[in-house]
What does this fold into?
Amino acid sequence: MDTHIETGYTIPPFYDSMIGKLICWGQNREEAIARMTRALDELVIDGVTTTAPFHKKIIQSAEFTSGDFNTAFVAEFMERESA
It folds into this structure.
């Protein structure tokens, strides 16, 4: 986790929406995705809504796991999810 926050930190009302980056790697795509899924499952950030559930849905999608996607993927994914 690349962040400046720590236990007990209070996020000020005017903050950068990226309060941290969760970075995972693996010997291959499958292992990296498995590690990221576990990290997202274990991630606890209280007090603000995060995009962790959204990222978990993305990395579990067939397009993402196969690597068969392009720069329009997120917009298309969001449209499908909201339908």
